[in-house]
Design a protein that fits this description.
heterotrimer, A alpha/beta, B alpha/beta, C alpha/beta, A: 2 domains, two-stranded antiparallel sheet, 11 strands, globular, C: alpha/beta, Rossmann fold, 2 domains, 19% strand
Chain lengths: 467, 162, 357
């Protein structure tokens, strides 16, 4: 009874890389319902014995003359041929089995037997691991600084270090990044210094953003990392336009955009995915499915098998990967990037992970989830310890290297904060610059008015903004 | 969710609209049961919608139906297939056909004639139903407009009762 | 019904030789060649020139491939190829979002929203992305190459969803520019300026004028500066400010007022954001009276911003309250359109009562 309702050939994905489970076909028999209305119109029994003739006669007049065979099993609608069936079958809402998840390392960091992955050199592996540690420590120290009242706000990437660093490692510096807000690791990998991070968080005059946005809203044109905006998923269609530009300019590069499980519910996700497919844009959609959108678990976010199944809804190749497995992330992104650029196509990567930290410093997630759950993910599924095990197994890391790194980073971080805190704020005129390329009259007038107001009532205004 | 996939959005062919296998495959992206049906087949559409409705109401779930069709102009030949089937059952005849066509035509022409001749809406309906209850600004604007129309009726189309 | 409505809808005549009127744009000079064009042809010309002069420029939107529902994009796909001029899926937030991405990479993206009535799904992209792109990045990035074109305004039978004038929503967004041309010649020059302006621009085209307005348009590549208002009719008793198609109606009112001995000065604002306060201020200081007219509903319309600003700057010179003759505070109605609109006579009445205050 369970029969797959075949769709037209043109959508069957060719097997791409045999080594990775991209676009794993969901031919496995889904639950299909055989639902004829009970006590339906008696006429159904009297259906013309040859539904083929009936159906084909319908189409004969409406189709172009190319359709000659009246016993054809195929219907020719705009957009391609579809075969038909006289049986009423609904496509089930989901596959019996979930899409499997690609991983290379087991929970303990041991390489799985028969695992396939893109090899990483010692240099890359060590940098990857070091940057994961650095990211984690940076988060620790900035988070603390916020708790102490030295920073107004902060958001950590705890639990998602592998996604951050491994994806960055697999990309080239020319690939343009459109982040959400939980991917500072990509900047870190590319060379953004701890001082530069601190400058933005403290909004001082060395902040490239000129103190205009909240902490963690980083951006760097030098590192091809577009400035973070807090609006969810708005970056997705932007990334597609950027990818199209890269394609038209013939660049050996792609656009890469990150978003969370929550972001996949936004209309901009749908808009971007659809555009990417139609425009044949070389863009990677990397979804950090970390289980939570602030307090909203994924069961309240969608009822599909996660985000990976949405790829086919747009005609986009997709893969589900263990986001806490640095090697798997690296390989998936590496392969996806190549496909995207070579074949001018978008790729969707769903990286399964867990948001170990609170949504931000404005959130206390123990109010909606158990501390045990958080702790389990932090310990048992920690991406750092898994990768460290693998790196060490290659003889590329040691306890000594670990403690050296950690003490160095700690020192650097504290110094970066100290300097950032001391550095003066951007000049007041930067409130008015960059709204347009050149300040229009109304802004020049308003600046004069504000300066007058400051002169009259200096006590109303912060004294650390130079005039 | 009943999608009329008729192949065109004004001048945009569906190959410029999406690159998936139509709309039906999007059901699973949301965990929604779906079916593709020949939109030009009255019995198929009837059956699909009947079944879908039962599922939706009984199981409290959404259902997606993609009805494939083609945007035709003056005459729709899909009428012909349904007609043939009904005739085969002995439920329809040429006489019935011409009767219903002339009746429908008559009724439509009558309706158009009547509609054309009927009074216009009273002017107050320009201002009602913006909200459940007319706010102050609209009351004022209505008074102002009434004065104006009374003063200079030649500026305005006739037949709108003040 | 259609004939009734058309009788009471505005009759359009762009006067060639009305007294002191410069309804027709005054960018002509000497020996250039001009051609008689309607609005959609003038816009089409501007787009051809834009794509010609910058190989990294793109035109896209719903149905632009075959020329667009208003024919503004005729011939572009054939001439520049489907990689640069193409149809998009039916998704305004996608169209604008994609355009922002293209612009962020240094391209010029001239996107079309089929009717201004449908621009709202893109409002988030426009306000939260385009308008803040440069500022939030500290000028590391910008999407100045983005221009969003959309037909707006009454057309006689458009009802709720083919007649809207949404300019006021956009005038409240620092970081973008809002431009509205009044005629074919103006449209070509303003559109080229908008496309080449290093800031994202929303360009509303008065759809009523697409076919109705015909004017001599220079064939060469020319630009009309943004944020510069133009006095298109000089006068001494009252200043009138408007934009787009409404100016034709206002000019008719000025002509009628003149017969009654009232001398009207008519200003085309052209750019609503940032707007040229200086020109309006100078005029009102001369005439002592101001009347603003727009199709959009009066409450919260852009006329309120102009009124408040002029009040601040010209209070002592004002002989009468600032008058606004605008659309009513209802959704744009179909059969009631002739009652809803700010008609010539409504404007004339307001001119007289302001002058006789």
């Amino acid at each position: 009874m369970a029969q797959h309702l075949k769709s037209s050939k043109s959508t069957f994905l060719n097997v791409l890389r045999h080594s990775l489970a991209f676009g794993s076909p969901s031919h496995a028999s889904p639950h299909l319902r055989h639902n004829l209305p009970h006590g339906g119109p008696p006429s159904i029994k009297k259906v013309s014995p040859n539904p083929l003739t009936r159906l084909c006669n319908t189409m004969v007049d409406t189709l172009s003359s190319s359709h000659e065979d009246t016993n054809s099993q195929v219907m020719d609608f705009p957009g391609g041929k579809v075969s038909f069936t006289p049986e009423i079958r609904f496509i089930s809402e989901s596959n019996e089995e979930r899409v499997p998840c690609y991983r290379v390392l087991d929970d303990n960091g041991q390489q799985l037997p028969n695992s396939q992955f893109v090899p990483v050199s010692k240099e890359i592996a060590v940098k990857m691991y070091s940057d994961m540690v650095t990211l984690q420590m940076m988060d620790n120290i900035f988070y603390e600084a916020q708790r102490q009242g030295r920073l107004s706000f902060y958001a950590t990437a705890y639990g998602e270090e592998a996604i951050n660093i491994a994806s960055a490692a697999a990309l080239s510096p020319d690939d343009v990044i459109f982040p959400q807000y939980r991917e500072p690791g990509v900047l870190l990998w590319r060379g953004f210094t701890l001082q530069e991070f601190a400058n933005q968080c403290f909004g001082n005059k060395s902040d490239y953003g000129k103190g205009r946005q909240m902490p963690v809203h980083y951006g760097s044109n030098k590192l091809n990392y577009f400035t973070v905006s807090a609006t969810i998923a708005t970056q997705l269609p932007n990334a597609v336009g950027a990818a199209y530009s890269l394609k038209m300019d013939g660049k050996d590069a792609c656009a890469v955009t990150f978003f969370g499980d929550g972001g996949s519910s936004e209309g901009d996700f749908h808009a971007a995915m659809n555009f990417a497919a139609v425009m044949e844009a070389p863009v990677l959609f990397i979804c950090r499915n970390n289980g939570w959108a602030i307090s909203t678990p994924t069961s309240d976010q969608f009822r599909s098998d996660g985000v990976v199944v949405k790829g086919r809804a747009y005609g986009i190749r997709s893969i589900r990967v263990d986001g806490n497995d640095a090697l798997a992330m690296y390989s998936a992104v590496h392969e996806a990037r190549e496909m995207a650029i070579r074949e001018h196509r978008p790729i969707l990567i769903e990286a399964l992970t867990y948001r170990v930290g609170h949504h931000s410093t404005s959130d206390d997630s123990t109010r909606y989830r158990s501390a045990d759950e958080i702790e389990w993910w932090n310990k048992a599924r920690n991406p750092l310890s898994r990768f460290r095990t693998w790196v060490e197994s290659n003889g590329w890391w040691s306890d000594e290297a670990e403690s050296d790194l950690r003490s160095r980073i700690k020192k650097e971080m504290l110094e970066a904060i100290r300097v950032a805190e001391k550095t003066e704020k951007p000049n007041l005129n930067h409130m008015f610059s960059d709204v347009y390329d050149v300040p229009p009259l109304n802004l020049r007038e308003q600046e004069l008015l504000v300066r007058q107001a400051i002169k009259s009532h200096p006590q109303d205004y912060p004294s650390d903004v130079p005039l | 969710f009943i999608c009329r996939n008729n192949g065109w959005a004004i001048s945009t062919h569906i190959s410029e609209q999406f690159r998936s296998d139509g709309i039906v495959v999007k059901g699973r992206a949301y965990g929604i049961r779906s079916i593709r049906v020949d939109g030009n087949d009255a019995l198929a559409v009837y059956s699909a919608v009947r079944s879908a409705r039962e599922m939706a109401v009984k199981e409290q779930r959404p259902v997606l139906i993609e009805a494939m069709t083609y945007r035709v102009g003056h005459h729709s030949t899909s009428d012909d297939s349904t007609k043939k089937w009904v005739e085969d059952n002995g439920w329809w005849s040429e006489e019935d056909e011409s009767k219903i066509r002339s009746n429908a035509r008559k009724q439509i022409l009558q309706a158009i004639q009547a509609a054309e001749k009927w009074d216009k809406q009273p002017l107050t309906e320009l201002f009602s139903d913006v909200y459940d209850v007319k706010p102050k600004n609209l009351e004022e604007q209505e008074l102002g407009l009434k004065e104006l129309v009374e003063k200079q009726p030649q500026d305005y189309p006739p037949g709108f009762q003040i | 019904m259609a004939s009734l409505l058309s009788r009471f809808c505005r009759k359009l005549a762009l006067p060639g030789s009305a007294h002191g009127s410069r309804m027709t744009s005054s960018t002509a000079c000497g020996s250039e060649t001009v051609k008689s064009l309607n609005l959609y042809s003038a816009i089409n010309q501007a787009l051809h020139i834009a794509l010609e002069t910058d190989p990294r420029s793109y035109v896209f939107g719903e149905d632009v491939g075959f020329g667009g529902v208003f024919r503004c994009t005729t011939g572009l796909a054939e001439r520049f190829g489907k990689n640069r001029v193409f149809n998009t899926p039916l998704c305004e937030q996608g169209i604008v979002g994609f355009g922002i991405g293209l612009a962020a990479m240094g391209n010029r993206a001239v996107v079309e929203i089929q009717f201004a009535d449908y621009i709202y799904p893109a409002f988030d992209q426009i306000v939260n992305e385009a308008a803040k792109f440069r500022y939030r990045s500290g000028n590391q990035f910008n999407c100045g190459g983005l221009t969003i074109r959309a037909p707006y305004g009454a057309v006689g039978h458009g009802g709720h969803y083919h007649s809207q004038s949404p300019e006021a929503f956009f005038c409240h967004v620092p970081g973008i520019k809002v431009v509205i041309p009044r005629s074919p010649r103006e449209a070509k020059g303003l559109l080229l300026s908008s496309i080449r302006d290093p800031n994202p621009v929303v360009f509303f085209e008065p759809k009523w004028l697409y076919r109705q307005a015909v004017e001599e348009v220079p064939e060469h590549d020319y630009m009309i500066p943004l944020s510069q208002a133009e006095i298109i009719r000089e006068g001494s008793d009252i200043t009138l400010v408007g934009w787009g198609a409404q100016l034709t109606v206002m000019e008719q009112a000025c002509l009628d007022a003149e017969k009654e001995g009232i001398s009207c000065e008519l200003i085309d604002l052209k750019t609503l954001l940032p707007w040229d306060k200086e020109t309006v201020e100078a005029s009102v200081k001369k005439t002592g009276r101001l009347l603003i007219s727009h199709e959009a509903p009066i409450t919260g319309g852009f006329g309120a911003e102009i009124s408040a600003t002029i009040l601040e700057r010209c209070f002592l010179k004002l002989e009468a309250p600032v008058s606004r003759v605008c659309g009513l505070d209802t959704p744009f109605p179909l059969v009631f359109e002739p009652f809803y609109m700010p008609t010539k006579n409504k404007i004339l009445d307001a001119i007289k009562s302001t002058v006789n205050y």
